[in-house]
């Protein structure tokens, strides 16, 4: 995804609703291995409690992992309409990896600077036969189960 400075709201909306970019074989096996290792280390040290505006559930038993610092009304799975106060603005240095759980509330504001803002987005989904994928997610697997690229060989 690339958010160029000066895009009109219509262009941004069109990209959001229709845009995607496929770059086959862009990452080498070494790069993928390093990414997996770094991401695993990051997840092992990640502290949800330090991110008060994050709310998601495990999905299986709807265990709420919401931080106690931030109260939201409703039960897990209820529709929630975010307001600006629900977001904490962060300055992210260029070259940073931003890891976002698929159910975490997040957004990115319009790029008003003179510099381009590049973001490479990887959607990682684990599952096999019988897995449940949230139907509220904007990115959906094809009906025939084909179309998502497997990073690792697995069953099926």
Automatic annotation (TrEMBL):
Cofactor(s), by name: Fe cation
MF annotations from Gene Ontology: metal ion binding
Stored InterPro entries: Phytyl_CoA_dOase-like (IPR008775)
Coiled-coil positions: none
SUPFAM superfamilies hit by this protein: Clavaminate synthase-like
Key words, A-Z: Iron, Metal-binding
Similarity comment: Belongs to the PhyH family.
PANTHER family for the chain: PHYTANOYL-COA DIOXYGENASE DOMAIN CONTAINING 1, PHYTANOYL-COA DIOXYGENASE DOMAIN-CONTAINING PROTEIN 1
Protein name: Phytanoyl-CoA dioxygenase family protein
């Amino acid at each position: 995804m690339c958010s160029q400075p000066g895009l009109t709201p219509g262009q941004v909306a069109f990209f959001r609703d229709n845009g995607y970019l496929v770059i086959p074989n862009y990452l080498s096996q070494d790069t993928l291995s390093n990414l997996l290792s770094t991401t695993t280390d990051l997840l092992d040290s990640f502290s949800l409690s330090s991110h008060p505006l994050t709310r998601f559930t495990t999905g299986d038993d709807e265990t709420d992992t919401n931080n106690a610092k931030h109260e939201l009304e409703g039960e897990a799975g209820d529709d929630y309409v975010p307001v600006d106060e629900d977001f904490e603005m962060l300055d992210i240095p260029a070259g940073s990896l931003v890891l976002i759980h698929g159910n975490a509330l997040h957004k990115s504001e319009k790029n008003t600077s003179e510099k381009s803002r590049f973001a490479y987005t990887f959607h990682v989904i684990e599952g096999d036969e019988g897995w449940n994928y949230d139907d509220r997610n904007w990115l959906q697997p094809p009906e025939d189960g084909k179309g998502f690229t497997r990073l690792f060989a697995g069953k099926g």
